[in-house]
Amino acid sequence: MPAHARAAVEVRRDADDHFEVILNRTDDRPISILQVTDLHLGKMDFWKQDLTTCRRVRRLVETHHPDMIVITGDLLTGEKYFGSLLAAYAVDFFDSLKTPWLYAFGNHDPEGGYGRDQIFGVFATAQWGVLGHHPVTNQWLKKYDYVVDVKRAPQGRPDWQVYGFDSGSEKGFKSIKEDQLAWFAATADRTKQRYGRVIPAVTIFHIPLREFQELWDDAGIQKVGERREKVSFEEDDGSPYRAFVRAGNIKAVFCGHDHFNNYWGRTKEGIVLSYGYISGEATHYAWPTGGKLIRLPMKGGSIAIENVTPVFTGNSP
């Protein structure tokens, strides 16, 4: 993932688990992020839907001009009959948007005989894509988690950070685990020591936290959006959320996985929990596919979130 430029924007790799997105601007406009999730590209005999998915994502980028795109898992279907070709197509499509794109593994992405390491090998050739990893001591050898510094200029401290996690797929690993949280705590602590302050951050991953269910069940907390299915937090035991609260840097969590939920709200600890908005035409969905537009303020204030769908003229999808 070499350094490169889109107009003024740059993406830099500082280490296997550390990247920079440099906006190269001085104004205080919020950082805009388009979240897409659960595209499920490559499902057998759904190529027409996949083409429509890509056209709709492209229109969202052309309309909203985000600083970054985040993909919160299940970009690819588990039915990967031609895994390397499908991964290469995904790289070609997202690179063609000429916007930095950050990727987190979903539970279906590594299925079908083309796993994490192989997908990473293809994604590592992307001009605009970001996917990192760090070593761990168990049989996994490495986990695909990383941090991105979002900065207005190459020098100085980040305005925001984005932490990407692999929330797992195999039984016994379908949540963010302790070795990943140890990496997160150490990374957040090094960041604080380097800059002498806590850098505000958001985090992206696929499988929601159990706190998403608690958020919805708490009648005293205002929520925006819809819930049409139970929260599938899989094996999450609350450890990631507690780690985020302890670190004090995480302001919002963005996930995917549940196709019929798109709500968000702020917990009593002040962390926004937000589902993505279903993006894949080959996926089961209950409303027109689209994305989530997120705006991170530069100088205080609240994170702005809205569900967005593309607008076409004529006979376009």
Brief rundown of the structure:
This protein has 317 residues and is an alpha/beta fold. Helices cover 23% and strands 24% of the residues.
Walkthrough of the structure:
The protein has 317 residues and is of the alpha/beta class. It has one domain (4-308): 4-Layer Sandwich (Purple Acid Phosphatase, chain A, domain 2), CATH 3.60.21.10. 23% of the residues lie in helices and 24% in strands. Strand 4, helix 1 (47-64) and strand 5 (68-72) form a beta-alpha-beta unit. The longest helix has 18 residues, at 47-64.
Features:
317 residues, 10-stranded mixed β-sheet, 23% helix, alpha/beta, Purple Acid Phosphatase, chain A, domain 2, 6-stranded mixed β-sheet
* Share of residues in helices: 10-25%
Number of helices: 6
The average pLDDT is 95
Structure class: alpha/beta
- Portion in beta strands: 15-25%
CATH secondary-structure class: Alpha Beta
Note the topology.
Layout: E1 4-6, E2 9-15, E3 18-22, E4 31-36, H1 47-64, E5 68-72, H2 83-96, E6 101-104, H3 116-123, E7 129-130, E8 134-135, E9 142-143, E10 146-151, E11 160-164, H4 178-195, E12 201-204, H5 211-217, E13 223-224, H6 239-247, E14 250-255, E15 264-266, E16 272-275, E17 291-296, E18 304-308
Parallel strand pairs: 3-10, 4-5, 5-6, 6-7, 11-12, 12-14, 14-16
Antiparallel strand pairs: 1-2, 2-3, 4-17, 8-9, 10-11, 13-15, 15-16, 17-18
Helix pairs in contact: 2-3, 4-6
